[in-house]
Design brief:
- By secondary structure, the chain is α/β, with parallel strands linked by helices.
- The strands form 3 sheets. Strands 3-4-5-2-6-7-1-8 form an 8-stranded mixed beta sheet, with helices on both faces. It has a two-stranded antiparallel sheet with strand order 9-10. A two-stranded antiparallel sheet has the order 11-12.
- Helix 1 crosses helix 2 and helix 9 runs antiparallel to helix 10.
- The longest helix has 20 residues.
- It is elongated and about 95 Å long.
- The chain starts with a helix and ends with a strand.
- About 30% of the residues are buried.
- The C terminus is likely disordered.
C-alpha cells in the first residue's frame, strides 16, 4: 500500500523531531536507534564528550568503552552535517578488531529508516546523501604518518584516539591538537592507563589536565562482573597491589612502569609511619676489594633486630649490637 504525500510528510517531520532530540540526548539515541541501554559510566562518557572539546577516558578492561565510542561515532554521523570522524590508534589492527568491528555490529542493529542512510565499507562509513561531507574513517597514528593526521579539517571535526597511551606524543602535539582550532572540534582519548608519562598521562596529571573532561571506568562497572571475577584477576596478576591489576582492573595509572618487589604505596606508607622508629645505632657493613675479587667483610658480633623502617624509599632493618 502506497502512502499519501501527507503521510510521507508526517513521517519526515517525526524523523526530524527525533534527530533534534538525539542531538541533545545521546542515551536516548542509543536506546532508540540500537536498543542499547547505556550504563552509568557510559552515560558519563557520552555527556562529557557532548559538552567538551577535550575528553580523556581511562579505565580497566570490559567496562564498555569500545561500545560507547562506537555509539558516539554513529551519533556524530547521524546528528551533524559537514562532519568528519577520524579514529586513530597505535595499530590499524587494533582499530579493526575493536571499534570498527563494533561500528559494523551496531549498523546491523540500526533501526530503519536510519540504517539505509549509510554505506559501510572496510575502511569508511559515509552518509549516502552527503558522502563527501559526512563520513568516518580510521588511520594509523605514528610518527611516520604525522602529515596525514595534520591535514584533517572540517566544521565538525571529531577525532577519537583508541589505546591513546600507545600513541607517540609527537602525533598529538604536531598534528591532532591542530583540530582544536576548527569551528566545532572534539578530541577524545580512550585508553587503559599503562604508563607513568606521556601525553595521555599528562591529560590526567599534567598542567593541561584542567583543560580536559575526565572519565574513569573500572572493570567492576560492568554489571556482569562478580567479586569472583575480580579475585580471579587478582590471582592471575599476582595480587591486587600489582601494576597489571591496577591498570587492567581498576583503570588506575601504575606507580611505576615496571613491577617492583615492594609496591610504591607500601614504601610511601612505611616512610610516613610514625611508629617505625629507627634504632640508635646500626650495623656497619664494609667492603674490602683486592685486585678483581671483592670480599664483603662483616663484624662477627651478634645482632638483635629491633625494628624495621623504610628510609628514602629503601627498606632498612634497624639493629642493635650486643
Amino acid at each position: 500500500m502506497s502512502i499519501t504525500k501527507q503521510e510521507k510528510q508526517q513521517e519526515e517531520d517525526q524523523i526530524l523531531s527525533l534527530l533534534k532530540d538525539f542531538h541533545h540526548d545521546i542515551p536516548l539515541f542509543a536506546l532508540t536507534v540500537f536498543g542499547s541501554q547505556l550504563r552509568p559510566v557510559q552515560v558519563e562518557i557520552a555527556e562529557k564528550y557532548q559538552n567538551s572539546k577535550r575528553t580523556t577516558v581511562r579505565g580497566g578492561v570490559g567496562f564498555g568503552k569500545t561500545h560507547v565510542m562506537a555509539i558516539l561515532i554513529w551519533w556524530a554521523l547521524m546528528t551533524h552535517d559537514d562532519v568528519q570522524v577520524t579514529i586513530f590508534g597505535p595499530t590499524e589492527g587494533t582499530i579493526e578488531r575493536n571499534v570498527w568491528k563494533e561500528l559494523n555490529i551496531l549498523h546491523s542493529r540500526m533501526a530503519m529508516p536510519f540504517k539505509d542512510w549509510f554505506e559501510v565499507s572496510a575502511k569508511k562509513i559515509k552518509r549516502i546523501s552527503n558522502p563527501a561531507g559526512c563520513f568516518a574513517t580510521y588511520a594509523l597514528a605514528s610518527t611516520d604518518n604525522i602529515a596525514a593526521a595534520r591535514g584533517i579539517h572540517q566544521i565538525n571535526n571529531f577525532v577519537f584516539v583508541d589505546e591513546a597511551d600507545g600513541v607517540p606524543d609527537e602525533v598529538y602535539t604536531e598534528a591532532l591538537e591542530n583540530i582544536l582550532t576548527d569551528i566545532n572540534p572534539k578530541l577524545c582519548l580512550i585508553s587503559n592507563p599503562s604508563k607513568t608519562s606521556g601525553y595521555f598521562w599528562e591529560t590526567w596529571n599534567g598542567q593541561a589536565a584542567k583543560l580536559w573532561a575526565h572519565v574513569h571506568g573500572r572493570m567492576s562497572d560492568a554489571p556482569h562482573v562478580t567479586e569472583e571475577d575480580l579475585e580471579a584477576k587478582a590471582i592471575a596478576y599476582g595480587g591486587r597491589d600489582t601494576r597489571m591489576y591496577r591498570i587492567m582492573v581498576e583503570g588506575e595509572f601504575p606507580d611505576d612502569d615496571v613491577d617492583g618487589l615492594i609496591p610504591k604505596w607500601a614504601v610511601d606508607e612505611a616512610v610516613n609511619n610514625p611508629d617505625a622508629v629507627p634504632a640508635a645505632s646500626y650495623p656497619v657493613i664494609w667492603v674490602s676489594i683486592q685486585q678483581t675479587v671483592a670480599t664483603a667483610v662483616f663484624s662477627s658480633c651478634a645482632m638483635t633486630t629491633r625494628s624495621s623502617a623504610f628510609t628514602n624509599g629503601t627498606a632498612r632493618t634497624s639493629c642493635s649490637w650486643r
